[in-house]
Model the fold of this input.
Amino acid sequence: MTEVYLLLGSNEGMPAENLATARLLVEERAGAIVKLSSIYETEAWGVKEQQNFLNQAIQIQTNLSPSKLLTALKNIEKEMGRKETTKWGPRVIDVDILFYANQSIDLPDLKIPHPYIQERRFTLVPMAEIAQDFIHPTIKKTMIELLRSCADNSEVKLKE
Done:
């Protein structure tokens, strides 16, 4: 079994319910959830003119290869109604692979670690909550160190 960190995000429909559905489907099809962060309400990143997101980091244990995991997650997104639209645009659900153990993978359709982790508070805050001492395999800094040095000042607040 491999330790994997995922980030769930939603800002269309009923985002809290979308995250709950995604967690169930991830557990059914990708691997057991070991840890989950709180849910955070976050400003949109990249394309600012849209609804705030709800985001949550989860750690799973999987026996799927990185490519098979990506396929399973893309199928979950599609089944939940995600449509391919503008990059960083609104979405019913987004499930990103942040880390796959300590591996570095650079394929046309899959980059691990996720290339924008260190630039996004909406990723670093929930990751630091569940894995503050996890070391980014290429940057060689912990999640808490990356959060402290992150230039992004977008609002990330605990969902009440």
Remarks:
- The two ends are 34 Å apart (CA to CA).
- Strands lie at 2-10, 32-36, 40-42, 53-62, 94-100, 105-107, 110-112, 156-158.
- Residues 58 and 84 are 23 Å apart (CA to CA).
